[in-house]
Design a protein that fits this description.
This protein is mostly helical and 168 residues long. It is built from seven helices and no strands. The protein is 74% helix and 0% strand. The longest helix has 25 residues.
């Protein structure tokens, strides 16, 4: 049943993602992957949507809005974050602790995410082509996979920060 649903919805999702991606400033493949993930989550919790085509259109619009909001909130760094030249020992210790926490969280990610994120965080500054070669995956799938992994990492770190803040 899931295979039939995917086969039926694939052309519509491709068209909808292409139509919405430009306005969000994202790749259509990233938008598609986010909607496929949302569909899988929906199937797991609620079963198949009653109106799959309508549900898909709404999901694409919702993911587009979420992506636009996220993009508006992201700001570039004023200075290079790796520039530690004028930081105090306390700031360096805190930065080191944050890096350890990040790498610990990356190791707990599902599937291929730990290897992909480790490659992206590598001090060797690998290109997408090099990362794809190391992981044995296509270069075109790195972007959508990276987006999915970053979403998982964001949820993981957000829940940890919220859990820590509740103590006291």
């Amino acid at each position: 049943m899931t295979h039939d649903l995917v086969t039926t919805l694939r052309p519509l999702l491709t068209a909808e993602a292409l139509a919405e991606a430009h306005a969000t400033g994202t790749e259509p493949g990233d938008l598609e992957q986010a909607v496929w993930l949302r569909l899988l989550e929906h199937l797991e919790t609620q079963g198949p949507p009653l109106d799959p085509h309508g549900w898909l259109r709404r999901a694409v619009r919702s993911e587009s809005r979420r992506t636009r909001r996220t993009t508006r909130l992201e700001r570039p760094y004023d200075v290079e974050p790796a520039d530690d030249s004028d930081r105090t020992p306390e700031q360096l210790a805190l930065a080191s602790a944050r890096r350890r926490a990040l790498h610990d969280a990356v190791r707990r990610l599902p599937g291929r995410c730990p290897r992909l994120m480790a490659a992206l965080l590598s001090p060797r500054d690998l290109t997408y082509r090099e990362i794809a070669g190391e992981l044995g995956m296509s270069q075109g799938s790195l972007g959508p996979e990276r987006s999915r992994c970053l979403g998982c990492l964001r949820r993981l770190l957000t829940s940890e920060v919220a859990a820590r803040g509740a103590r006291g």
